[in-house]
Amino acid sequence: MALGLGLEEAFGAAGEFGGGQRRLTALLVLLQVYVACQSMLIVLVGAVPEYHIDQEGIPASRAELAKHIHFADNFTSIVTEWYLIEREAYKVSLASSLFFAGLLIGNITFGPLSDKLGRKPVYISGLFFDVVFGYVTALAPNYDVFAVSRFFVGIVNGGMALVSFVLTQEYVGKSFWSFTGSLTNLTFAVGIAVYALLGYCIREWRYLALVSNTLGVIFLLLSFMLPESPRWLYSQGKTAEAEDVLQYIALGNGKERLNLKLKPSAGTFRKDESALGILNLVKHPVLRWRTIILMYIWYVCSFVYYGLTLNAGELRGNLYLNVALSGLVEVPAFPLCMFFIEKSWSGRRKTMTCFLIFAGFACIFTMFLPTKAGLLLSPTSLALCGKMMVSAAFNIVYIYTSELYPTVLRNAGLGVCSMSCRFGGILAPFVPSMKSLSPSVPFVVFGISGLSAGFLTLLLPETLNKPIAESIEDLQSPKYQVLKNEEAEQIS
Cα(53)–Cα(47) distance, rounded to whole angstroms? Predict the structure, then answer.
């Protein structure tokens, strides 16, 4: 075996996606079922059953309310236990928003922590505390403890899911990154359906929270067998340890013992990148407008995606079926968007515009439909159609954003956009409660958001088959613009 291999060459020798790597990534991809159960917990645990109050007016005290209110007994939830109705109804949305606020903090803190301390220790610590706070949620003696535990679950769940996603990429060769990434998104969607099935079987909310959290214990125990990321070890200058992990991967792939020798690593790099950082996103006019538009698109994708998912519990028809379908409807979204974004006649920009506009119209049209319309034209099926479109747009925006930023600012750009995405998640839980004004109001809010983001996408440049800018100067040089046009002509 030749001495001084680069990391990608070493992956080529050990195997890019062999049996050993499939086992490692399968564990992390299946973990998304647990992540989905935690993310969607409030949809069933905070569901409002049918109820009636056997006196005029709402009793002032909780003790009085407990005597006069009668809930349908088909399931229990935090609403039935702590009487979160009428004036107290906002508390369900608040608990959901606290979870998303936690996600925002987890996403900001766990990334840099895993860059500094290593992927495996940060991931396992996050999963451990996710399980601990998950049990606090299930055993909460009152609403306040429940709400605070949801905030902490958000922090560790968001952070741990982010690091596990990075690990799924870093165990495999670069050519399989998009495959493992898409598999992760698909498994999250299936996880929503698994949670709906659990909810259907377990109608007592505390038992449902306990069972869905116990999935985390299984993944935690299995995760101790995972090795550290060879890419992280190499980037930190720990070449010998990176070689050991690659050797372990090669043996897992059924290869004979290899004489792997990596080139000495330059150690931690890209220090200048963070110095360039967020300031340049604001300083340069081209990037400033690009960033503002992308931040709004990310915000809308998250706002509409989580809004429609959380609203699944509010739709007419079977609660559990609606939640399951809101997850499963995402499965065809991925192949759909992958087909269109690679075609020269549609590309990234037009495909994302169409998906967002279709999602917007699907939501707005629900207000013109009678509630007792047939299955195909019911508000529920249009809402599910909107969910499929927006999840396709969500898949594209990750790819499109990374292509719109020059290499030196890609991390900073993606970081700012994913932060604005979390604000969409924080606001989304409050929209379904607007149905007290009119049943169609939540859909109109989601519809207008989708349409506005769709039309704004048209202001961005197409990136399909165009050279990716390496530096900020590339974006502004006339030579780069000419090169872009020439390449596009050659390809078409």
Answer: 18
pLDDT band at residue 268 using 50, 70 and 90 as cut-offs: very low
What is the distance between the alpha carbons of residues 440 and 280, in angstroms, rounded to a whole number?
42
* CA–CA gap between residue 47 and residue 260 (Å, rounded): 56
Instruction: List, in order, residues 6 or more apart from 463 with CB less than 8 Å away.
Output: 347, 348, 349, 400, 403, 404
Find, among 350, 387, 380, the residue nearest to 366 by Cα.
380
CA 366 – CA 441 distance, rounded (Å): 10
Other residues' Cβ atoms within 10 Å of the Cβ of residue 374: 9
DSSP states of 301-317 as a string?
Answer: HHHHHHHHHHHGGGSSS
Instruction: List C-alpha distances in Å: 23 to 27, 28, 219, 222.
Output: 6, 9, 13, 11
Q: What tokens does 372 get?
A: 């007792």
Rounded to 10 deg, the angle between the 410-427 and 90-117 helix axes is 160
Q: 483 pLDDT exceeds 50?
A: no
Q: 139, 206 in Cβ contact below 8 A?
A: yes
Burial 311-340 (b: 16+ CB within 10 A, else e): bbbbbeeebbebbbbbbbbbeebbebbbeb
**Which position has the higher pLDDT, 182 or 213?**
213
> What span, in angstroms and rounded, lies between the C-alpha atoms of 86 and 313?
17
3-state secondary structure at position 71: strand
CB 389, CB 378: distance < 8 Å: no
> How many C-beta neighbours within 10 Å does residue 53 have?
15
Whole-angstrom distance, CA of residue 488 vs CA of residue 492: 6
Amino acid letter, residue 256: E
Burial of 462 (0-12, 13-18, 19+ CB in 10 A): middle
pLDDT tier at 477 (50, 70, 90 boundaries)? low
Strand partners, 70: 52
Residue 249 amino acid letter? I
Distance between CA atoms of residues 148 and 393, nearest Å: 32
DSSP state letter for 89: T
pLDDT of amino acid 488: 44
Question: How many angstroms separate the most distant Cα atoms in the chain?
Answer: 85
**Is the CB of residue 312 less than 8 Å from the CB of residue 185?**
no
Q: Which residue's structure tokens are 């200048």?
A: 272
Question: Per the structure block, which two tokens stand in for 158?
Answer: 């968001």
In tens, the pLDDT along 41-81 reads: 999 999 888 888 777 767 667 777 777 788 887 889 999 89
